[in-house]
User: Fold this.
Amino acid sequence: MKIILMRHGESVPGGIWKGTDRERPLSEKGKAQLEAIVPMIGSQLSKPDLVLSSPLFRAYETAALIAKAWANVQIIELPELASGARPDAFRHALQMHRQAASILVVGHIPDLTSFLGRITGNIALLEEPVAPGDMLAVETLDEALAWGSGNLIWRKKVRDWKR
Assistant:
């Protein structure tokens, strides 16, 4: 299984946003950055079998924008991927969809890096910052998604797609 982990795009800062954290949207800059890279993502990445998203609006909004890179990709919003998700919740969410060969997961930091460190067995990956919109791809042949069974195969920052 190929798992592409993506941090949601830049969001409206929490100190400025007046609503709930769950409803906090992407900033205009965040939307523009994601919209600008959709054509490159569509031409450089194979269409995932599905997209899993945190239910927080900024993550779902990111998933919906990125899904425009491919026709008819299904987006599934999962409560297990909300901010504060534990690595086991990520693993469980992916195991529920293990028939998929490729999954894009849109979520939050530090949740994404915690899962990445566990699935690859490389805790040094926890130390590397993941900026809004960054993507990391992991491949694993283990259907159970055992900790340490994955390999980081690439990492792209938002600015890397523009090249």
